[in-house]
Specification:
heterodimer; A: 176 residues; 2 domains; two-stranded antiparallel ribbon; 7 helices; 37% helix; B: 97 residues; alpha+beta; Glutaredoxin; five-stranded mixed β-sheet; 5 strands; globular
Amino acid sequence: MADRQPIIEAMKRNAQKNGYYLCPDQQLFNDLIDGLATNTGRYGYGSCPCRVASGLKKYDVDIICPCEYRDADVDEYGMCYCGLFVNEKVKNDPSLLGPIPERRPQEVIDVALSAAEQKPNVPDVITNHSKKEKKTEGVKIWRCTVCGYLCARELPPPICPICKAKAERFEVFTIT
Amino acid sequence: MNSMKHETVPGKNTAHHVKIFTLSTCGWCKKTKELLKSLDVAYEYVDVDKLSGEDYTEASEEVKKYNPHRTYPTIVIDQGKHVILGFKDKEIKEKLR
């Protein structure tokens, strides 16, 4: 198991920077950190403690904590898949913590786990599976009107990670 | 590592056959185990992340049968009569009452 403390510090910094909070359920928080420390020791990277990893980094990059589904999940459910990152509302009312649907696409899970199982004659779809194609159509680009920071997500971030301006200072950015 | 498979936890409540597929690293899986323990339900569990090779493949295929998304915990009651995905404590209590 890797050291817990550096992981806690890194997650704390990341939450602060992005306007999120860490899991308000202390027991769950400790278990999740233990899980991340175990995975870091086991795989060499901190993949999500609540998802099964393939153990092959190129198939697990999307679930290395903070995972790439976090922002969308915190926007929609107030918490990420495992609950390590939450919004202000859930921080203030931990009873809102609970299971949320898996946003990671089924085909991504299947490809990663097939690779992990080293299925013989795995077709090229898997060997050539560079990162899956991102669904970018319809995703909004938000611009911080204070510092110009840009990000692509459904809702603006709670705070600008660069200048700390609040969500209301963001506008939808359109390329004409 | 066959010893890792199907750990059995005793309990007085044996009205249902309960098998859960879990990850040893997952806080919600741990909550599920603790809930079953507090309800004194006898259950089997498999920590899928601790398996490797054929054991892993076998367990993973079994989870897929009940839950194509292969998320954890997957709680299988009475050989699939009820399948609960995730730590849905109310639903777990209700089904095992």
